[in-house]
Amino acid sequence: MSKRILKSILPSLSLLLYMSLQSHGQMNYRQGWIITAEGDTLHGLIRDRGTLNSSRSCRFKISREADPADYDPYQIRGYETSGYKRFRSMEWEIDTSYRRVFSEVLLEGDLSLYLYPHQKNLAYIIRKRNGILLALQAEEIHYHRKTEMAGDRYVYGNKIEGYFAFYKDSLRVLFADQPDLSSKVDRLPYKTRPILNITRSYMEAGCDGDGCISYEKDLRLTRDRFGFFSGVQLSSLTPLDSGFGHNPTMAVPAGIFVQFPISLINDRFTFQLGLTFRSLQYVQTTRLPPGSPEGYMRWSTLGVPLSFNYRLSVKKFSPFLGAGKEFGYVLSSSTHHVTSINFLGEYITETGYIHRSQRGAWFADLGVSYELNTGLSFFSAIRLQRHLNKRIEDKYQNNFIFKNAEGEEYATYAASLHVGVRF
Length: 423
Description:
By secondary structure, this protein is mainly beta. Helices cover 13% and strands 54% of the residues. Strands 1, 2, 3, 4, 5, 6, 7, 8, 9, 10 and 13 form an eleven-stranded antiparallel sheet that branches.
């Protein structure tokens, strides 16, 4: 039965995957423009990449049919993908020297805030209208603590490592004319969202009109997301040690998940943590005389699937791939097998349980999603999964280490169709 499941699904999966890969290169471009060294604007298509690669070079082409060209920060003044990201070529202090890089624009207007993620402790710079640059630096320093005096010398204790928040002093100077904001600097972490928010607040407080902010990055595009799903699962149970056969079964899985974007590497790459629940029941099909009692295996599982997902397109309608492993915990279970009939005509049965933990549970996903807007999308995915369960005779063997329990192993092959919403 497991082979029939795979044979019925694999052709459609292969076709969808082939079509996705064929158009993958074209789908990774967004509408945008570059600003040449002479100050001219050229409209075309910008290759969508992660923050780290985007800060090194820009891949641009005039049209979809044209050949792409790569530009470094010395060749153009900057580039932008429409409604998504903006980069400016500027000098950045790197290893005690200055080098020209593409800095991502977080805020632009009366004050401009830039990000260069390659620099851990010097990732943000604020530029004033008069061109003065204000570096926001979180310097790592090493110092010793004086512990006692020995004669005319100090004896030092162990080395203490820490961060000295130079960026807070810089912001206090910038916000000196607004004491309310200045007082919030002490609690300001060295992260994009809080630094962007406090800089915007300063600009809005001192703005006489509507033109003090001309651009602001939409942080919702790279935020953590969550969602839920349900669907239908068809699975079969294959015994590895015994001759007990079972009918395939249908189940209704349901779950929730959280997605964490890995934007530094690639904007379409995410790590997903989920929680799923399903109940399964397999009916025994081993040939027995008519009228014999029904054998079965049933259990309910709470799973924690961990996976990496990759969107193949930057369009609203996008195929995606996923792969991962599910760690499952059997909440409740019972098994009943009819093994034989004795000379008195009585049925000999075996009862037992399913081991608490499962083994393996690797899975692959192939699906499509549709972005309705920045905060809402719908998706559908097919998941192929295989894992092992073990039938044990009593609950005393229910330790968490799968291989330490004695019992019969069963391989479960499952194909699921998930439909859900992502916020």
